[in-house]
Every structure is written in structure tokens, then in C-alpha cells.
Give the backbone structure.
Amino acid sequence: MEFTHDAMTKLKELLREPEPEVLQGDDLPFSGYEITSNRDKVPCPSTNDTKGPRTIEEYEEQEAAELDSLAGPGGGAGDRKAPEYTMNYQQSVSAEDVFLQMGPKTPSSASCENLIVRIKLPGDKKENVELTVDTKSVTIQSPQYYLKLALPHDIDPDNSKANWDSVKESLVLTLKLDREFDFVNF
């Protein structure tokens, strides 16, 4: 092999140290701005906090009080409470799916068509309940209760329905799921 000037120059370029991918302190161009930190000026929280619980019972009482003030997911609004609710998936199955296992459906929630939300509103009447449904959440308002509930999947509000169960004083929502790949499971 012949060592020409061009070959030596190319070899030198190959053996050169690679440039750093991330610029470090001195490599950065000067911007004219001074960077400061106030980390040393922030006072540390005191380890001898007298308001903190000293026993397990005090801790549990404090935790229960905090949970009551938050009123759970969806939270209450002002003096209104958050109602109890349940969410269940609903799947339409036939004998072909259950006994013969010939259909494409599985027992998982991926094959479900509807989301059933039951909201208990004791003491309220159907006329006093205001319901707002969009693709990602449900909002229920009444004189006694308030609930803004984020849904686990997008829904189709136009094909969903709501029923009032006067015996149980609850609102039953049948929300049609609208998922991107539903055609795969049906």
C-alpha cells in the first residue's frame, strides 16, 4: 500500500477525536446573560414540625380529614358532595361467542361496546339533575351533588343514552365506546 499525501490526510480525519454530542459549559457561546440560582437562599423545611402527626392514630385522622375535603375523584363543588358511582363494561355476545367460541370476541374489555356508569343520587329527582356528556368526560350537577368524571375511553355521545332509576334514585348512563381499532375486535 502506498502512503500518499491524500491517503494520510483521510487517515488523519478518521483518527480524529469525535466532537461531543452535548455542548458542555466552556463549549457554549457567550450569550451576555448571567445564570443564577436561588437554591441556597430557600429555607429548608423544619424537621421539628409541631403540626405533624406524632402517632399512627393522629396520622390516620389527618389523612381521613384530607380525603373528606377532597371528596374523591371528580370532587364536589362548594357545598355539594360527590356522589358514589360505578363503571362497568358491557359486551354483546351470542351463542357463537360463548359456547362455540367461533366469534372474534374475547372476554377482555377490548371487545366491549358500552361503558355502563351508575351514579347514586339519593334524595334527588330526575328533574333536578343536569347531565353534560362529551367524548372524554361526564358532568352531573344537582342541588345536592356535583361530579365531573373523566372517562377511561373516548365515547360517542350521540349514540349514548341515560336512564333514571327512580327506585334506586340513581342515573344509569350507557355510553357507546368509540375506540380507534374497534373494527379489529368485531
